[in-house]
Amino acid sequence: MKPFQYLRPKTIREAISMAAEDPDARYIAGGTNLIDLMKRGIVSPSKLIDINHLPLKKIEHKGDRIHIGALALNSEVAQNKLVTVRQPLLVKALLAGASGQLRNMATVGGNLLQRTRCSYFYDTALPCNKREPGSGCSAKEGINRTHAIFFYGNETPSCIAVHPSDMCVALAALDTAVVVTGPNGERRLMMKDLHRLSTAQPELDTYLAPGELITSIEVLDNVFDKHNHYLKVRDRASYAFALVSVAAALRMEEGKIWDARVALGGVAHKPWRYWAIELMLKGKEPSEALFREVADHELKSATASGQNAFKIKMTSNAIVAALKTAAGIS
Ligand SMILES: Cc1cc2nc3c(=O)[nH]c(=O)nc-3n(C[C@H](O)[C@H](O)[C@H](O)COP(=O)(O)OP(=O)(O)OC[C@H]3O[C@@H](n4cnc5c(N)ncnc54)[C@H](O)[C@@H]3O)c2cc1C
Ligand code: SF4
Question: Is the model's pTM score more than 0.85?
Answer without folding.
Answer: yes
